[in-house]
Amino acid sequence: MPATDPAGYWDIKCEGWLNKLKDVTVKAGLFVFGRAFQAVSKLDSRVQDELLGIPEGFTLRLSVFPEGPSILLKKSQNSVRFIGTSSAEPDMHLILKSRETAVMFFTGRMGVSGAFAGHRLELHGDLNIAMTVSRCIAIVQRYLFPAFVCERVMRGVPAMGFLRQISRLLVYLLAIPFGLI
Fold this sequence. Notes:
CATH class: Alpha Beta
Number of domains: 1
Strand order of the largest sheet: 3-2-1-4-5
Low-confidence stretches: 5-13
Mean pLDDT: 89
CATH architecture: 2-Layer Sandwich
CATH superfamily: SCP2 sterol-binding domain
Number of helices: 7
Radius of gyration: 17 Å
Shape: globular
Largest sheet: 5 strands, mixed
CATH topology: Nonspecific Lipid-transfer Protein, Chain A
Helix content: 40-55%
């Protein structure tokens, strides 16, 4: 607590405001991530190759613990479809263990491998498929964040050639705001 604020007024007032900002960041991050995953699964051959090992109709829920927001993704025709929020029981459930972890994940301060290694991501489902999903998530994060961010949070940053940079532009301009692609 700063010396100019002996009563702690600013800490209490900012905490409520900060929590609301974190909630908005997490909800927006989940939405952007879901739309980007859908688009990247159609545009990037590496993700399409990874998806070959996942059964058709497979569902994945990504959520924030406890009882935070969540999204549902479904594999269909060798791509991923962003379902949005749904109460359907998924085949695999990835749970970010806190709101702070979710904020770090969706703002590019933590990659999926770092979240698993730091016990900040909980998995309910098949571990073999989880490794495939983890590689796909790393590629999606590479599309969402610039190279200098990805190099800090990922091992083995996926390459982005010229055509993938064009695909990245399509993700930003069409997929995320309009759900096209």
